[in-house]
Amino acid sequence: MSDSDGKKTLGLRGPNAGSVKQSFSHGRTKSVVVETKRKKVVVPKAGASKPAGGGGRPIGDPSKRPAGISDAEMDRRLKALQAAKAREVEDAAAREKEEQARAADRERRREEAEAKERAERERVDALKAKAEEDDRKKREAEAAAMAAAAPAAEPAETRTGGAKAAPPARKQPAREEPRRDNKGKGARDDSRRGGKLTVNQALRGGESRHKSMAAMKRKQERARQKAMGMNVEREKVIRDVQLPEAIVVSELANRMSERVADVVKSLMTNGIMATQTQTIDADTAELIIEEFGHKVVRVSDADVEQVIEQEADKPEDLAGRPPVITIMGHVDHGKTSLLDAIRNARVVAGEAGGITQHIGAYQVDQDGKKLTFLDTPGHAAFTSMRARGAQVTDIVVLVVAADDAVMPQTIEAINHAKAAKVPMIVAINKIDRPAANPDKVRTDLLQHEVIVEKMSGDVQDVEVSAINGTGLDELLEAIALQSEILELKANADRAANGAVIEAQLDVGRGPVATVLVQNGTLRQGDIFVVGEQYGRVRALINDQGERVKEAGPSVPVEVLGLNGTPEAGDVLNVVDTEGQAREIAEYREKAAKDKRAAAGAAVTLDQLMANAKADENMSEMPILVKADVQGSAEAIVQAMEKIGNEEVRVRVLHSGVGAITESDIGLAEASGAPVIGFNVRANATARSVANQKGVEIRYYSVIYDLVDDVKAAASGLLSAEIKENFIGYANIKDVFKVSNVGKVAGCLVTEGVARRSAGVRLLRDNVVIHEGTLKTLKRFKDEVPEVQSGQECGMAFENYDDIRANDVIEIFEREEVERSLD
Ligand code: GDP
Ligand code: MG
Predict the structure, then answer these.
(1) CATH code of the domain occupying 617-718
(2) Which among 224, 524, 540, 768 is placed 20 to 30 Å from 789, CA to CA?
(3) Taking CB atoms and a 6 Å cutoff, what residues make up the pocket around ligand 1?
(4) Superfamily the domain 722-818 falls into
(5) DSSP 716-742
(6) Burial grade of 101 (CB within 10 A; 0-12, 13-18, 19 or more)
(7) For residue 469, how far is its CA from the centre of ligand 2 (angstroms)?
(8) For 131-143, what is each residue's pLDDT tens digit?
(9) Using an 8 Å Cβ cutoff, are 250 and 235 in contact?
(10) Which ligand 1 atom is at minimum distance from the Cα of 341?
(11) Which residues are found with C-beta within 5 Å of the ion, ligand 2?
(12) pLDDT value for 283
């Protein structure tokens, strides 16, 4: 029945309202309490549940949040919840909505459940409309009879109920609910017991009985009407449902032509709590579609992607291309040394000093043929690139130290190479060492099904020394031989595609990606899409640091002219127009965002319970990290992962390079995490979304400060005070040279106020590139203490001159508040 169903929903938090608050405080549950407002979810913990603040997460302190709710508000909501529950127990068809206004959210959910219930019943009715007609009449008669017998039956029912329900002190209706719950959740069962409900209600006493009877009759009448109408036909339509990577629940219902409430219910019975506005992933959606009896048509990529030329090359267009080699092996076995040795031996002397390496890949000459080495040793890089769809490596050189033989990461490397079906060449390194035992390496490898030539297998093995250069020629010959066997080919005469080997946001040059061209030729001026970014090639720089006009197959180049920083492993495709490029990039960004949202939102009941349980012992503090360069991002992640004790652990949900974007905020919100910006800022949309959703963003420029704060937050010690206030932002429109002053920025104050005495930061592409003070703040010709938002002004920095048009000046004031605990 609707009441028992509504009960079920509320029951989740009902029996243990206290612990619910705790689980809310730890992020995930945030999105689970689907019909509730998010802020509501976050608040209970800080406000009501843990006034002592023991394991609190002050970084998410609601009092600091723009959207935070007060304790009083929280209490009010909790009371409302209890009231709603009590009422619910009384009667399924409770009409006193005015009274429940305070519990609006809960009420709405209950109604949804009711609607679902009704729909289910109608469906059943539709299936056997005829038979039920008679049946129902019988039951009604029966019900009436039972109603008459009600007063007499009451004591007996009380006893039965008491035996079944645990707390005997409770009143009868309260007992009845759990009992019905236990009997089964099947909607069909419930609807079949429609008559019996009347009996039960009859037992409760006069008023409610009459009401329930009337309500039931109305429902039955409605059901009968529906059953005779379109409902019956609708049942039979089997649809082809187009299913993308992620889909919003209401859209899924729409595509199936099913009721949203039914879909939500179906999700719930599958253990997934999601509202109609939430996004679920394709696998979950497929389950639901099948449950409704429709056909799934997976659409992997949107049509926009189809402008990317997928045409296969004709054999006559193909020509040989250099092999791409990755060096893998156990730590300290000499990967880096070997890469250096090869480069130093082969890069023409005198060219840029020979040693200077500009990008994460280089080419060497072997008997007039080129070999491309990727300087990204490490299995994680290799595999994560593969996971992103870029198989760039043709040959793996497995480095094994002759004095150490096969080690765990050697085995890992073997497995990665095998998984990627990439041929291997074994370089037995450090043979200059006295303890070197190359044959032990060979026999060790046998155990891992790598049979080298010396053991009559077909894997080439070469003894080398990265230190004194022994065997390097043989190694390069072996590589050239292997590459001949592979017959690697490409068509230089087509639009290029390639893979990002590494990318970073470069102060001054903007986003820069090192791309390995895989097919076609990449030229200056080409328009491209790469992962979720796009751009037009402004400049190409080769591995020698020289500007080049084009790069053919297997050539690594630095690409300038992107609109954002892609990720290693992203695939670059040249397209015809900028419109296409942008469209694809935006589509991908959205798809990725949906997917992340789906991953964060669809928390299963099991997880919910697990979290609640885990809360007692160990809790996780999720955070997101964005930094100006990959190096600092990695350093921060490492530092964060070290923080923690028995009670709390820091979990980095995501880390990346570049400005904090809307999608970062989305992910943070879904997980109840704060966003840490290290020398980067949130862009304008991200800032406003964060304000709306109550996601906290913290900015740092010193890693120690960041680590200290997070440590403090993790142990519940961080004071909630604000260290720094942003008081304004100004956009640089133009830069002038003024004698005796230097460069002066002509600005428009876009937010807040510019203050002469305040601290300033210069942001370029939302990355902090300078922090200092103002030398001058001018309004027209006059030096002024303050300039308000909307007004133009001139600003010059103390001891800093590299300012450009479109840079942003952030104006901040440090408050007297020092961190109170150190
Ligand atoms: P990676 O961790 O695999 O990149 O290993 P490295 O290239 O950093 O080398 C680890 C250590 O081994 C360094 O101290 C190198 O100097 C040393 N090493 C590397 N190759 C050789 C070699 O062929 N002979 C000797 N004797 N030492 C080597
Ligand atoms: Mg190394």
Answers:
(1) 3.40.50.10050
(2) 768
(3) 329, 331-337, 429-430, 432-433, 465-467
(4) Translation factors (2.40.30.10)
(5) T------SEEEEEEEEEEEEEEETTTE
(6) exposed
(7) 17
(8) 555 566 666 655 6
(9) no
(10) 20
(11) 335-336
(12) 86
Calculate how far, in angstroms, residue 376's C-alpha sits from the geometric centre of ligand 2. 9
**CA 429 to ligand 1 center in whole angstroms:** 8
Listed in sequence order, the residues at least 6 apart from 16 whose beta carbon sits closer than 8 Å to its beta carbon are none
Strands 547-548 and 619-627: unpaired
CATH 2.40.30.10 domain position(s) in the chain: 497-598, 722-818
Q: How many other CB atoms are there within 10 angstroms of residue 186's CB atom?
A: 11
Architecture of domain 317-478: 3-Layer(aba) Sandwich (3.40)
- Fold for 497-598, please state it: Elongation Factor Tu (Ef-tu); domain 3 (2.40.30)
Integer Cα distance of 143 and 146 in angstroms: 5
Q: What is the pLDDT of residue 589?
A: 85
Convert 292-313 to b/e letters by CB count within 10 Å (16 or more is b): bebeeeeeeeeebbebbeeeee
**Of the residues 330, 335, 337, which should be mutated to test ligand 1's pocket, given the most ligand atoms within 8 Å of the CB?**
337
DSSP element (H, E) containing 314: none
pLDDT at residue 792, as a whole number: 93
CB 483 within 8 A of CB 448: no
- In ligand 1, the atom with minimum distance to the C-alpha of 466 is 23
- Taking CA atoms only, the protein residue closest to ligand 1 atom 18 is 334
| Average pLDDT along the chain | 73
Residue nearest to atom 14 of ligand 1 (CA): 332
Q: Return the HEC string of 479-525.
A: HHHHHHHHCCEECCCCECEEEEEEEEEECCCEEEEEEEEEECEEECC
User: What is the number of the ligand 1 atom nearest to the C-alpha of 331?
Assistant: 2
Q: Which two tokens mark 513?
A: 């990606």
Q: Which residues contact 401 (CB under 8 A, 6 or more apart)?
A: 329, 330, 332, 333, 334, 429, 430, 433
Atom of ligand 1 nearest to the CA of 468: 23
Q: What is the pTM of this model?
A: 0.46
Q: Which residue has the higher pLDDT, 615 or 527?
A: 527
Q: Looking at ligand 1, which atom is closest to the CA of residue 333?
A: 3
Biggest CA-to-CA distance, the chain: 107
The CATH 3.40.50.300 portion of the chain extends over 317-478
- Per residue in 47-89, pLDDT (tens digit) is 333 333 333 333 434 444 334 455 655 566 666 566 555 555 5
E strands present in 489-642: 489-490, 497-506, 510-519, 522-523, 527-530, 533-541, 547-548, 550-551, 556-562, 571-575, 619-627
For residue 808, CA distances in Å to 152, 561, 678 come to 81, 20, 17
Distance between Cα 430 and ligand 1 center (Å): 7
> What is the H or E stretch that residue 263 is in?
helix 260-269
Ligand closest to Cα of 398 equals: 1
